[in-house]
Design a protein that fits this description.
Elements (H helix, E strand, L loop, with lengths): L5 E7 L6 E5 L7 H17 L7 E7 L1 H4 L10 H17 L2
Parallel strand pairs: 2-3
Antiparallel strand pairs: 1-3
Helix pairs in contact: 1-3
């Protein structure tokens, strides 16, 4: 699944809960920006219903988008949270 700012890869696993992997390269931004990205993704994952399902989820920052003039996180934080939340909801409905 692809949002403007983030790529999502997911597949079912044989465990009783979901696992989350997060990747943000140095091209995404400095350490502060990468850590903010990871904190937001983890927070939205904790509030979603996905943690009780059985999925392996990988969230990857979209470096093509983040390298453009309009930077992702500082300017449009609420839109970013909304993208993450809607993607997790869609994954949970696709089960």
């Amino acid at each position: 699944m692809r949002k403007k700012s983030v790529l999502f890869y997911f597949k079912p696993n044989l465990l009783s809960n979901s696992r989350l992997g997060i990747s943000a390269s140095k091209k995404f931004g400095n350490a502060v920006k990468r850590n903010l990205f990871k904190r937001i993704v983890r927070e939205e994952f904790r509030h979603s219903k996905l943690k009780n399902l059985n999925f392996d989820i990988l969230v990857v920052s979209n470096n093509r988008y983040s390298s453009q003039k309009e930077k992702l996180i500082p300017l449009n934080l609420e839109q970013f949270r909304s993208d993450i939340k809607s993607a997790f909801l869609k994954i949970s409905l696709d089960q």
